[in-house]
UniProtKB/TrEMBL annotation:
Superkingdom, taxonomy of origin: Bacteria
Annotated source species: Saccharothrix tamanrassetensis
Protein name: Putative membrane protein YeiB
DUF418 domain boundaries: 239-409
Keyword list, A-Z: Membrane, Transmembrane, Transmembrane helix
Metal-binding listed as a keyword: no
Transmembrane segments: 23-42, 62-83, 104-125, 131-147, 154-178, 215-238, 259-281, 301-320, 341-360, 366-389
InterPro entries: Bact_Transport_Assoc, DUF418
């Protein structure tokens, strides 16, 4: 019997890391923590969408407008793209070092199992809106189906995924808007986002069961049906094959066009929902619901915005000189990207016990604007923490656990001694 192929190498070495992917992940986490703020405004009366509250302050309304246009349903495709990009990077590093394609996929599957476990614990203890679980499952499925395929196959299936996304979201939404079929004014959401995410429940154990129920739907139903996430992940595979973020200087034309068109399409797609949410467009309540036409328009154009943001991060990295790359602020943001899993989980550790009703309950007192300030402060805390770890050459704690799951503790200890 032939001996099964072994993993030829361990985790990525520091000298192999490129600035742009980690810098992009660091900035992405700021966008993620801002987009999660609506889950914690549990005492405010909710608007027709069930997500953003009804507020009178001009500052709060301005913050809501910006978040709906630039962040809502725009950040998750960005996360999916970078997740897919990282998967392909890991796969290529392994196979280049001599690992068989199958063994590399087994390694990635172990990583996905670890992420699923992290996602379960994250939801049970802190945040129902965890996205690790859904992307872990998508990573296993898309990884085994596509990571070993040719560039041509990847390009074709990426185009198919984008076409399916447009056909199931943007096209029906535009047809409904053109035909005036926007739904009923009698519609009311089944529950607000804060209820589904349990931030307003004072009993921790009851909130845990609510969070796990919501997480299960997100992970096992919403994830498999997320065509925007699938398309973004496949495009991440394609971009990583071409080293778009590692070598942005070779792809400037692509990055510029993607930045301009992606952000323009994405923001225009979110504009109607932002105007309607603030009362500047008189539309039926159903149009703003999760199944409404404006939400579908946001979902369909969110991929474009996410890709636009990635392109902007790549262009920023390309403009940085060697001196700029050593700037403490750049080093700190990049350090967050290197420890993105730990920092993502740290957001919830700093958020939930302080804001949720089962904790200190401060979410009752905050508004859209003050919550955004709080979220930015939380991100800055993780920036300082990641920078401190970077200065001492230490990985994030969640990354250490995940690498133990992937490579085994004995192999990781051997690598540490060799360094």
């Amino acid at each position: 019997m032939a001996k099964p192929a072994q993993v030829a190498r361990g985790s990525v070495k520091e000298k192999e890391r490129a600035l742009a992917p980690d810098f992009a992940r660091g900035l992405m986490l700021l966008l993620i923590v801002l987009s999660n703020t609506v889950f914690y405004l549990w005492a405010a009366p909710q608007g027709p969408s069930g997500w953003h509250p009804l507020e009178d302050s001009t500052v709060d309304r301005a913050v809501q407008f910006l978040m709906i246009v630039t962040l809502d349903l725009r950040v998750y495709p960005l996360f999916a793209f970078l997740f897919g990009y990282g998967m392909m990077q890991l796969y290529l590093r392994q196979t280049t070092a001599g690992t068989s394609g199958r063994a590399a996929l087994v390694l990635l599957s172990k990583r996905s199992v670890g992420l699923l476990l992290f996602g379960f614990a994250h939801a049970a203890l802190l945040l129902a809106g965890d996205i690790l679980g859904s992307y872990a499952l998508a990573g296993v499925a898309l990884g085994w189906l596509f990571l070993r395929r040719t560039d041509r196959v990847l390009a074709v299936w990426s185009a198919i995924a984008v076409a399916v996304l447009i056909a199931t979201t943007v096209a029906p939404a535009l047809l409904a808007i053109a035909g005036g079929n926007l739904g009923s004014d009698e519609f009311t959401p089944d529950q607000s986002a804060t209820a589904a995410y349990a931030s307003g429940q004072p009993d921790f154990m009851a909130s845990m069961w609510t969070r796990l129920g919501t997480w299960s739907v997100i992970t096992f139903v919403g994830g498999p049906l997320s065509f925007a996430g699938h398309a973004a992940m496949l495009l991440g595979f394609v971009a990583a094959r071409r080293r778009v973020l590692e070598e942005p200087h070779n792809h400037l034309r692509l990055l510029r066009w993607t930045a301009v068109l992606g952000v323009t399409i994405g923001w225009l797609g979110g504009l109607p929902a932002a105007l309607a949410n603030l009362g500047y467009l008189d539309l039926p309540a159903e149009a703003l619901s999760d199944s409404g036409v404006l939400n579908q328009l946001q979902v369909g154009t969110g991929l474009a915005a996410g890709l636009g943001y990635v392109a902007i991060f790549g262009l920023l990295a390309n403009r940085m000189s060697d001196r700029t790359k050593r700037n403490p602020a750049v080093v700190a943001v990049t350090a967050v990207g290197k420890r993105s899993l730990s920092c993502y989980l740290a957001h919830s550790v700093l958020f939930s016990p302080v804001l949720a009703a089962w904790g200190l309950g401060l979410g009752e007192k905050l508004t859209s604007a003050t919550m955004a300030l709080f979220a930015t402060a939380v991100w800055l805390i993780t920036v300082f923490g990641a920078y401190a770890l970077e200065r001492t050459g230490r990985r994030g704690p969640a990354e250490v656990v995940l690498r133990n799951i992937m490579y085994g503790k004995r192999k990781r200890d051997k690598e540490t001694r060799q360094r």
